Amino acid sequence: MAGIKVHGSVFSTATQRVFASLYEKELEYELVPVDMKAGEHKKEAFLSLNPFGQVPVLEHGDQKLFESRAITQYIAQEFPDKGTQLTCPGKPIAPLLVWKEVEALQFDPPSSKLNWELVYKPMFGMTTDPAAVEENEAKLAKILDVYEARLSQSKYLACDSFTLVDLHHLPNINLLLGTPVKKLFDARPHVSAWAADITSRPAWAKVLALLKH
């Protein structure tokens, strides 16, 4: 079987999404580090893999994929019999498709903006914008109200088993739980239990271990 190569950075939330799917599937891979500080992702060698100049890129045989959520879906479909299913076998596919879009289009924008303001700006010695934090906290609160209702009916977002939908949330949730935004999760018991469940998965622990190297 052709080997899997991941071009990316362990500090990139998008790359972490791909690592999580590979660990859930118990797949071996080779990491090709991309030095983003040095701008390697904008240089010709990398742009030949992803013309948008963003990590991660996955190579598997003659397949070259970019966009983290496309990569995780490829992994789930290409290796159905390995590790965790990551889909809803024997169940209607509609909720999986819908909630996968919800994460990308509803949850990701405000959560990424909050992490930029509360995690990355302080790291880079930049000043947090309180107005941006307030605006995106309000947006995220409304989204988490919808999640609370959904999770009161279903153990996970797509069905009663852990899927790509839940996995896609992990990098942003992991960062948000280390900020004052944690209060939005704590105030919603089903959301809070779900976040605790998914962030304690062994595959995610392996992703976090990469950050300690």
Automatic annotation (TrEMBL):
Enzyme Commission number(s) from the entry: 2.5.1.18
Top-level division of the source organism's lineage: Eukaryota
Chief place where the protein resides: cytoplasm
Coiled coil: none
Top enzyme class: transferase
One annotated GO biological process: toxin catabolic process
Catalytic activity, reaction form: RX + glutathione = an S-substituted glutathione + a halide anion + H(+)
Entry similarity comment: Belongs to the GST superfamily. Phi family.
This protein's name: glutathione transferase
